[in-house]
Amino acid sequence: MSDDFMLDTDDLKRRMDGAISSLKTEFASLRTGRGSASMLEPVMVEAYGQRTPINQVGTVNVPEPRMVTINVWDKSMVNAVEKAIRESGLGINPQLNGTIIMLPIPELNEERRRDLSKVAGQYAEHARVSIRNVRRDGMDQIKKGKADGLSEDDQKLWESEVQDMTNSYIKQIDDALENKQAEIMQV
């Protein structure tokens, strides 16, 4: 490979890893009929004049598969946390017990499972698009290198490396989607 042209593959990998990480976060927010603390990560509470993640106003626990509890540290924040959960669109009805908010996770019906599966597919497609955009940036850098004197053989080697990296990340996305859809459809 040419000494003067050096593609920053570490940057491309970092950006592709970011797309995978973002996908995993989005998948964690999808309710699958089982409780998990990560399903509350996107919920923001109006606390002390600013929007705060729910895990910074209380302890989130999963004492059993169909129950999530939040032990709110400041008693004055209980109603704000309850309101944030109701307005979050999770479809969960919080129950108060002092400073503890209990979230019973209802069974998912077949239609809701299919809807969630489609949403997971959309999340995966967004991640694939992100990976392809990183790939395009890498290919653009290689084309600029060719204009600056990169040989055709080196260009082909770099393009092949970027494409192999892209295929690897797309496969990770497809595998993660398959696992998430199986988890969602499990009764």
TrEMBL record:
<comment type="similarity">
    <text>Belongs to the RRF family.</text>
</comment>
<dbReference type="InterPro" id="IPR023584">
    <property type="entry name" value="Ribosome_recyc_fac_dom"/>
</dbReference>
<dbReference type="InterPro" id="IPR002661">
    <property type="entry name" value="Ribosome_recyc_fac"/>
</dbReference>
<feature type="domain" description="Ribosome recycling factor">
    <location>
        <begin position="23"/>
        <end position="185"/>
    </location>
</feature>
<protein>
    <recommendedName>
        <fullName>Ribosome-recycling factor</fullName>
    </recommendedName>
</protein>
<keyword id="KW-0648">Protein biosynthesis</keyword>
<keyword id="KW-0963">Cytoplasm</keyword>
<dbReference type="InterPro" id="IPR036191">
    <property type="entry name" value="RRF_sf"/>
</dbReference>
<comment type="function">
    <text>Responsible for the release of ribosomes from messenger RNA at the termination of protein biosynthesis. May increase the efficiency of translation by recycling ribosomes from one round of translation to another.</text>
</comment>
<dbReference type="Pfam" id="PF01765">
    <property type="entry name" value="RRF"/>
</dbReference>
